[in-house]
Amino acid sequence: MDTLLSLLHGFSVAIEPSKLLFCLVGVFLGTAVGVLPGIGPALTVALLLPVTFKLDPAGSLIMFAGIYYGGMYGGSTTAILLNAPGESASLATALEGSKMAKAGRGGPALATSAIGSFVAGLIATIGLAFLAPWLVELAVKFGPWDYFALMIVAFVTVSATFGDSPLRGLTSLFIGITLGLVGIDKLTGQARLTFGVPELLNGVEVTTLAVGLFAVGEAFYVASKRFRDPEEIIPIKGSLWMTKQDWKRSWAPWLRGTAFGFPIGALPAGGAEVPTFLSYSTEKKLCKYPDEFGKGAIEGVAGPEAANNASAAGTLVPLLTLGLPTSATAAIMLAGFQQYGLNPGPLLFAEKPDLVWGLIASLFIANVMLVILNLPLIGLWVRLLAIPQPWLYAGILVFATMGTLAVNSSPVELAMLFLFGFVGYLMRRYDYPVAPMVVGLILGPMAEQQLRRALQISLGDPMILLENPGSATLLGIAFLALVAPFVMKGLNRFKASED
Prior knowledge:
Layout: H1 2-14, H2 17-35, H3 41-51, H4 57-81, H5 91-102, H6 106-140, H7 144-161, H8 166-180, E1 183-184, E2 191-192, H9 206-224, H10 244-266, H11 273-286, H12 299-322, H13 328-339, H14 346-351, H15 353-374, H16 378-384, H17 389-407, H18 411-429, H19 435-457, H20 464-467, H21 469-498
Antiparallel strand pairs: 1-2
Helix pairs in contact: 1-15, 2-4, 2-15, 3-4, 3-9, 3-13, 3-17, 4-5, 4-6, 4-12, 4-13, 4-15, 5-6, 5-12, 6-10, 6-12, 6-15, 7-8, 7-19, 7-21, 8-19, 9-17, 9-18, 10-11, 10-12, 11-12, 13-19
């Protein structure tokens, strides 16, 4: 009952005209950037962080959440019409969606994607509203040792999940944690790793790192691959709407995709890639028309797209209740919270209930807006694909530079922006994931603070981390998550050598 009352109060905040406008702008931008290949919601939120520095915190965060949801919607358009998923979460959709488009059924593919996203987003947001308060009650009982262990789990799982190599993910994370040490130590008042540069005394700005890695780095990377084969857009033929048979074949995959996406998205090592491929393989096994898989089965679009969008709501559960990002976009959104002096976690629900419940309620509104925007405006989203890449990425560079200078008009900040952009380019060039670096910069100082608190309570005895059941269990999970990828790789090599 308390949750329903809180949610109703959240709707009273979310339906304010200014909040509705922020939500509309967010879902429109999110869909637009989701459609454009290579530009995901993480990049867009990173670009807007400096621009929204002095805006209303609640409205800005509602807009960021709308971008996240919209990006998940829009990513299916390129996956279906270009066979070029803008994000890894849309890879499974591309497998059947592009085949449907080539067979002249691009319209039904886009329709089942949009409606499935709406159904999944609605159910998953209800799950978020009812699961979040329960997690908050659990998190209030956490001690410093539990929080430190939880952050170690986040470090390890994020590093192991992003990219193909856990070692590369850990390298990216280590660089981020090192950057988090820059500035004045809050305990001793000593300057660390500032190298005599006064501008570094306040530490490295998360917004500068995020915009540099995601926006500038992506622009450099695309420019370096400019002269590749142009992508051919598959024209939409026939009706845009689904037949009665399409509806009959889609509703069960929508529900199953939601059942995969929401709980896995809420896990520290969740993300959207795992549930989308689980959904795809499940639909392939359960489909009454197995011969159609690989040739354009609508179940192969409906299930993964529902899982994709349900995981977005699932990702917000650990972000809002524990302050733990489990995706690149969630990491940037965490930076957005910190930009306004807000720390997601159990205290945020007590200190800023209007903001938290307004944000959750706005997700319901965003879902309705997205399904209204997506179905009639498919033609507009397709036209966006015709924007020349040089114009697009030149605009991104200008926008990134102006936004960073608006927050801090320092030559050092500008130099750091392009230095991080060059680092982001190199990381993409050599297949190093960039998200763990942002997570390291955000959570590194927080983990250090919690560890120091735990050691102060135990008078310097590190065994306190293992003596408490909660922290010991979490550290055990972190160890297994760290070792598992290397063990699996070793087993695969052993099987390959036997064959």
